[in-house]
Model the fold of this input.
Amino acid sequence: MEITGGGRLEVRITSADVGKRVSVRYVTDSAEPGEKFTDAVGVLTSWDAGVLLITRKSGESVRIAESALVAGKVVPAAPARRRGPSATFPELARATARAWQPVESEALGEWTLRAADGFTRRANSVLPLGDPGLPVAEALTHARAWYAARKLPAYVQTATGAEGTQELLCAALDRHGWRREVSAEVRIAALAPIGDLDADVSAVRLSRTVDEPWLRRYQRFSGDEEASPAVRSVLASGPSVWFASVAGTGEVPAAIGRCVVDGRWAGFMAVEVDPGQRRRGLATSVMTALARQALDEGASAAWLQVEADNDGARALYDGMGFAPHHHYHHYRWAEA
Done:
């Protein structure tokens, strides 16, 4: 990184640049051996009491003493992807939400409070896609009370790493005592190449409804009959929902998957394979069969969500052409 003025490094950012994407160089003990400086690129989310907070696209926050800065400048938003579908964060956030709908929801300005008897964080968290109509601190207090009334932990789902994402809200959550519990990538790809994969789809069965064998393979379903109505409700939600399964040796499928077709988007979820039958191409077969169905319904773009530590799934999706669009995170109220 070169930030120079008359051949010298310069700090060209101030506290007035909070909310902008910046690139900085600073002195740190954690630099590589033989180096004096470390670089950071991300959104400047605060500059208080001589300390800068920069949120990287992954959601990781970096605290830098103002006295350690040696260079800094405002930089443009990350360049748009050159291949695959184009997508704004709001468009994709709304599509992913429509594919995983709660049992109960309530609007708080442009925030949505969602609950589904505790089945998954996504269906039991605040989705903040705009102004809540209240100061953030008051909105978060309201959300905590709303979830407490339902005997659920309070979560807020946020996003980082794309134009229009929520780095400032992430910093506010941190200041107000909320802690990030889990992060994942939202990835996108062109749909046609997935449908064109050389995969054996002859054994893949597609259905409009989720059945008991499918649920037995689904790792997020505990088998609790009291929770079953909420699980089934969330899984069945979405504009055009399809369930895929490949028969196993017993009553439990060898592989399953779920796809929601929504206009140009096809969202892939719950792709799971019996651990004893992995590396046989079953996940690819499931994805390909669902992609072909979505193409028949007019979709042209694909999305999915994958946790950062799921190396096997990330490798599979890399091979299918999926690339990261943004990261999403769940913040939980850290009760005293």
